[in-house]
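Why show two proteins at once? Because comparison is the fastest way to build intuition. When a single record is shown, students tend to memorize it. When two are placed side by side, the eye starts asking what differs. So, the first record is below.
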Amino acid sequence: MRSQNRNILVIKKFLFLFILFLGLINAIENPKIPKEISAPMDLALQSKNYVTIPFIQKNFVGFKEALAFKESQGKYRVVNTLGYLGKYQFGTSTLERFKIYNTTSFLHNPELQEQVFIAYCKVNKWILRKDINSSVGKIMNGVKITESGILAAAHLSGAGNVKKYLRSNGLKNLSDAYGTSINSYMKKFSGYDVSFIKGDRKASI
């Protein structure tokens, strides 16, 4: 009887280890990609062995994820020392522009944060449309002006201050409260394809 029980115990252990082994093989062959870095197939190329993270590509997804990482390390619920909110660090005045008044709800709504970012880019692109046409390709402070750099700088300091920067040929290079300058954003976020964004003065959520 003892011998029979011992055999049953050995079989159970074997089955347990075999199931663990199958689970490990499945995990290696079919890794789960976190939702935070997932993207449609045309934006994030995937294969059995690797995933190309979107923000290393020079498209709009790459642009917004790189900017978000600089602003908040890509975290939706971050509030900085000056009260700027979320993944893209919006001020309350910008949120109110899009009729968003409940900041707590905003911080807990990733989809809404993404929508606000796109709408804000559309508004800024409309405001800066003439400056984009006249300035892209020029060199200011050693940096080649690109449309993505302009939109990133507008996110940092506002479209009005970017206009002043471009129209002064880079002389009015304002910085935010943490010392980050318009020129540094022009450089850091240059060269992305942001043609996805269409200028829209009345962009809304």
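Second record. Ask yourself what differs from the first in the token line.
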Amino acid sequence: MKITLRKAHALQTVINEAVNKLAFTKEVALNEFEHPRSVIEAAIEKFNREEYLRKELLDTLYLLRKSVALANVAAGVNEILADVARAEKDINFYAMAEQLSPRLANEVINGKVGKLKEQPSDAGRSFHSRSDSISTNIFDKDALDQMKHALSTAKKEKVRLQDMLLEANIKNEVELTTEQVDVLHAADLL
């Protein structure tokens, strides 16, 4: 049976959930009205059935993961994911440009620094009443525009790459073995 990479990913999630839902009872409560041996044997049988199902599901899961890994390599999915991660790093970095204002004009900076130089000395003033510096962004409007353009380009690239990833996940398939299909049917996961 063939399934797409997208379905294979969803199936892996479902298998993991099924394994996590298995309850392995290691202790039973006994009372005077029950036969201890039959209660214990029933618990052991249930434990063994669930242990066997766990083994079968995990075997199926990890064979599926190997098949998906090979299909991902063949389809170039890993390279696309790396490129998406790079685009996300650029988006996170260049997003700062949206929060910044352009650097003050050189004339304004020079004027403010000149006023700082002309201020009287600290004699007789409190520490907090005098400013010894000015602050300005280091990026001028052109630099911020370039950063915003880089941000826009990275966002477009990420969308393009995610479309490629979706296409690869839908077009490429993996083959489930008959045994895997049987296990998944028995566990009511297919």
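One difference worth noting in the second protein: Residues 2-120+130-186 form one domain.
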